[in-house]
Amino acid sequence: QPALSGDFSAIMEWADAARRMKVRANAETPVDARTARSFGAEGIGLCRTEHMFFDDERILAMREMILSDTEEERRAALAKLLPMQRADFVELFEIMAGLPVTIRLLDPPLHEFLPKTEEEIGEVAAAMGVDAERLRQRTEALHEFNPMLGHRGCRLAVCYPEIAEMQARAVFEAAIEAAASTGEPVVPEIMVPLVGMASELSFVKGLIEGVAKTVLDEAGVKIDYLVGTMIELPRAALNAGEIAREAEFFSFGTNDLTQTTFGISRDDAASFLEVYRKKGIIEQDPFVSIDVEGVGALVRLAAEKGRARRGAMKLGICGEHGGDPASISFCEDVGLDYISCSPFRVPIARLAAAQAACRR
Ligand code: PEP
Ligand code: MG
């Protein structure tokens, strides 16, 4: 494991004594979670569960699930994924040993899970025992022209509730197991992505609460948990007061919030933003540093509306900006409780959070 040593470690401790905001990491693999801890992360602020389904065994079951015709078939495919997902979460909870862990429900652009080649279609067809031609048609029917604005985030949980239910079951079962093995209470934070309306969150939260009740009753135990949401669409920021009725925490997804506020694709921006910068039209890349007048104004507004509705609700950021010192300074001004960034940026985030606190 990488670690901070000697004098550097001492400087980081001074910084920790000065800062107000907590520093978490974005991590979903055991390696990343251990790296994050060795760099001083105080929790996981974003576990992107979609990244957990891309290895060979899992993607096949995931494809079977998405390409199934009936809920019953989907549930059968999900049953194969449940033990793997549960083991993923047990390991993360054990590594984090009682520190907060925010698990985000599946947030893929759906096309990332669809078979792309004839060979892949044949493989899934064989696993499902169906005709390859039928599967090809089903794959085509799920094609989207604008996947980043399409079937992703909480929309997936609304259309296929059984996916969210499988993931929630895995979270609660894992929390029970990890609490027993570590002796530390595990309080999972379940995060719903790409919410734009309170009614979306209320629907998904209902699914999560239903599963929590079933699993906890089955096990005869009680655990605390939080259900919250990402604020990553302008509509969510504008309606944060309503959304806060349902959400126990907000985490600002500034990657998507920048994309949707600017109307600029986060995957294609580099080519022309560089020209914009050279010609003096913008000073800095908004995907690197929070654009204070636009995205930042939405973050500030949502934080104010959320807190006005729910009092001291927990507020964090998990977009890439959470590892950028200038953005961290902005987060301090807004009064966020924590920043979450990639594991290797945790040390710089600890220093930047301390610097921002000292400046106030
Ligand atoms: C975000 O949109 O800022 C975010 C953290 O989610 P993702 O990058 O996974 O879309
Ligand atoms: Mg996002």
UniProtKB/TrEMBL annotation:
Domain of life: Bacteria
Transmembrane parts of this sequence: none
Domain PEP-utilising enzyme C-terminal: 5-357
Annotated family: Belongs to the PEP-utilizing enzyme family.
Task performed by this protein: Catalyzes the reversible phosphorylation of pyruvate and phosphate.
Listed name of the protein: Pyruvate, phosphate dikinase
